């Protein structure tokens, strides 16, 4: 068995009085792709955001339980910036900053005190290569990232995350706003990234989960119904609710 990178125990999350996550217990393995599937509003994106404390930004949220990254409880640290450096995030809609491609990728390292141009050049090149977009943009690094296609913008956002040297990359439906060709490129990228990163992806697309993930977790009404190897979840789920969702008999 692979090393456990993230360990979650007895996690409950409330928006005010409304309980959105109920007693979540899960272990996420290092350098694997773990997919979260389930119907809209089932809590999978909310749970993803607990893994780097993005829910801290929402008013009236209460979180109980334990979330450990490398054995350290992330809700007992005051250094949220350090946490979000280690656990990066890529959002559903590509969100490059309104600045050059180069400055998008160099933004995080600059913020963390890297000033040497040669060092920044190296980080930018390595990150863009890591995001499989260097060859497409190397001659236009000073042009605005907003001029790129949606798929290219999403890979710039992945490069921006990689530039911070994270250990975990969270992806919240990273291809839902993209066309099929761009989706395929991002999926191929995720396949290669898992050699170096632990990846957790929320997806509505079950075929995508089947294609790219090693483990799949099925969520329903704020509960984790089951998690298993992806091929087992899709061929021999233990819970009838999972089977109904996968076969389209759900609801």
């Amino acid at each position: 068995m692979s090393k456990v990178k993230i360990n979650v125990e007895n996690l409950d999350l409330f928006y005010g009085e409304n309980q959105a996550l109920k007693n979540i217990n899960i272990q996420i393995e290092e350098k694997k792709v773990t997919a979260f599937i389930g119907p809209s509003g089932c809590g999978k994106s909310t749970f993803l955001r607990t893994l780097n404390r993005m829910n801290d930004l929402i008013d009236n949220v209460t979180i109980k339980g334990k979330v450990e990254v490398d054995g350290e409880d992330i809700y007992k640290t005051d250094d949220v910036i350090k946490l979000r450096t280690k656990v990066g995030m890529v959002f559903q809609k590509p969100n490059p900053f309104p600045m050059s491609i180069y400055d998008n990728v160099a933004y995080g390292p600059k913020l963390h005190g890297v000033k040497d141009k040669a060092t920044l050049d190296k980080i930018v090149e390595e990150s863009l290569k890591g995001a499989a977009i260097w060859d497409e943009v190397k001659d236009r690094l000073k042009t605005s990232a907003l001029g790129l296609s949606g798929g290219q913008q999403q890979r710039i956002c992945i490069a921006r995350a990689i530039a911070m040297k994270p250990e975990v990359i969270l992806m919240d439906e990273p291809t839902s706003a993209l066309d099929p060709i761009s989706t395929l490129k991002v999926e191929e990228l995720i396949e290669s990234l898992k050699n170096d990163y632990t990846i957790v992806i929320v997806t509505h697309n079950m075929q995508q989960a089947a294609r790219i993930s090693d483990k799949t977790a099925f969520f329903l009404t704020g509960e984790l119904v089951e998690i298993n190897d992806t091929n087992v979840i899709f061929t021999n789920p233990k819970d009838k609710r999972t089977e109904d969702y996968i076969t389209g008999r759900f609801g």
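The beta strands are 4-15, 18-29, 33-37, 61-69, 72-73, 87-90, 168-172, 198-202, 215-220, 223-229. The longest strand covers residues 4-15.
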